[in-house]
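Bench notes, afternoon.
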Amino acid sequence: MKNIAVIGAGTMGNGIAHTFAQNNFKVHLIDISDAALEKGLATISKNLDRMIAKEKISEKDKTNTLNQITTFTNLQEGVKGTNLVIEAATEHIDLKLKIFKQLGEYCDAATILATNTSSISITKIAAITNRPEKVIGMHFMNPVPIMKLVEVIRGYNTSNEVTEIIMQLSKDLNKVPVAVNDYPGFVANRILMPMINEAIETLFHGVAGVYEIDTVMKLGMAHPMGPLQLADFIGLDVCLSILNVMHDGFKNPKYAPCPLLVNMVTAGKLGVKSGEGFYDYSEVKKAEKISKQFM
């Protein structure tokens, strides 16, 4: 399994492509526009330069990694001849179902179909395909080249063979795979998002300010990043989407998004990606400073 397709050149997609390419996999990086692909490749190049600066890789390693990646704007062409397709598109169920229905038609019968979804049902996604036993979740953590965890999510029909292949593949990437079952939020976000939401509620009710809440969690609970800063880094729109999935899936009010989060997303304050969230990232240097903490 050395030919991989990654759908989506955004934050997660380019990170996944980077990781596979750096481990000598042939990667087809697919997005809807050349501009998105160019931006994704530029991010990969920049992240490789940081690794060179820290003497983790050489210039030759960078060149070899970039040479492993081929870009496509046509989905059918991009997935041709690949052993594994990893979807890393926007976290919207309708979009993912559309993509996976096409993948069922375009991909070879033996191709495994994976999704990097952080909360959406693998079983529901698999049901739209002609191969539900070959559909699985590979939830990478951001930033993908640095973070070790891969949450491997089995859908209701995912075969043992496919699960074992993906577990071993994750290890081949020098990651630590953890197998979990298909319930809203899986493990990572089922625990993380209620904490972030509670931090937002704490701010909403005036218990403390942004800096104070994050400082308590960093210094008191040994978290490397406060929950509000982490929410900015993830993207407040993504946090809201995940909470909505869990709220709908469990029918439990404890997963209901805080009104402050809903209002911020409606106002376009999405965190680092928009330049403002709980913190102000309007100056480029501020955003770069945040990013460098993880590279």
